Amino acid sequence: xxxxxxxxGVPLIGEVxxxxxxxxxxxxxxxxxxxxGICVINNLPRIKDVQNWANILKSMGIHxxxxxNEMRIDGRTARPVEPPIELVQQxxxxxxxxxxxxxxxxxxVVGMPGGCSIGVRPIDxxxxxxxxxxxxxxxEHGVIMAEAERLVGTNIFLDVVSVGATINIMLAASxxxxxxxxxxxxxxxxxxxxxxxxxxxxxDIKGAGTDNIRIxxxxxxxxxxxxxxxxxxxxxxxxxxxxxxxxxxxxxxVIPTHLDSIIAKLEETGTLxxxxxxxxxxxxxxxxxxxxxxxxxYPGFPTDLQQPMAVLLSVVDGTSxxxxxxxxxxxxxxxxxxxxxxxxxxxxxxxxxxxxKNLTGAKVSATDLRAGAAMVLAxxxxxxxxxxxxxxxxxxxxxxLEEKLKNxxxxxxxxxx
Length: 417
What we know:
UDP-N-acetylglucosamine 1-carboxyvinyltransferase, UDP_GlcNAc_COvinyl_MurA, UDP-n-acetylglucosamine1-carboxyvinyl-transferase, Chain, 14 helices, peptidoglycan synthesis, 4-stranded mixed sheet, 2 domains, EC 2.5.1.7, alpha+beta, Enolpyruvate_Tfrase_dom
């Protein structure tokens, strides 16, 4: 086991390059097995979830090469076999195998997904979509079994905006007969990235990034080359870190329009934001002001950034409120931050945060991926030394986080427990 040891109170200054998007990568990789050819995926982040995908595909007999930030996947070797449950349960995104294999082979057997424990995350909308396309779905002993004689396009209205269901249905529908319309679809940038990848393979998808996605099924998908988009959440994490530490960071390799909601909220606190074509400069000014956050599906404020934002709001003037509208039970990290002097109370879906002068170092746990990022950020802000344990969660989603922070002047090191 490893942990981070952080000596806080140092403003972060310098330039950082953002890696490929984790949420796009974990959906594009399984989509590649639908191709009757070789797909080369570039700009992949070197994180545990991406390596886990490589291991899952190899366990299924699929030929995979993964070096640096590039993966080659030979879809010609794919077969509809069940991957090992111990690999599937390491991440939530393993459910994309159901849509990909159902689309190509009309059959899928996949264990129920794992990932971070952040409340109830049902897959009912995924199942609704697969059944509407003509598949029969059974869940027995923790395994999803999907099968169809044929998939036929239809209109599917999602009862809630779901990124996972939107992508999974899009995968299966890409090789269905006729036209599928997904209404009330998720609009996140990584939904668009997956659609662009499928189109590069020969799919016919229009409307990704809007409420309505139209998919005309094709009989065959071919290999292609694809570059993953920059990671919106990693970029937002460094933006918040600059503001919280009173630093000055230029964040490169970003798509600024993906960050509009984050820019707006940071500017409300008094943070100076200077965007350009593919970079953003963030200057933390003192004193910062309180603001209220309501997480929403894109283009609203991302649920994956409310935890780092809580750290920033803990050291501003005044009282702020964070309302979580996407997931249940996503405030478990609040109790960890209280060990560092956070003044907050949770009422239902909201956390009310009263700004304090300083946080102080303590030993805290990364309860999940994004909460882990918040613990690291709190350590950077706090006076004294902070130990962050259970950092394997952080490694699932951030590429070389401590190295990037060190290059900005942070006093952080990874040590064995």
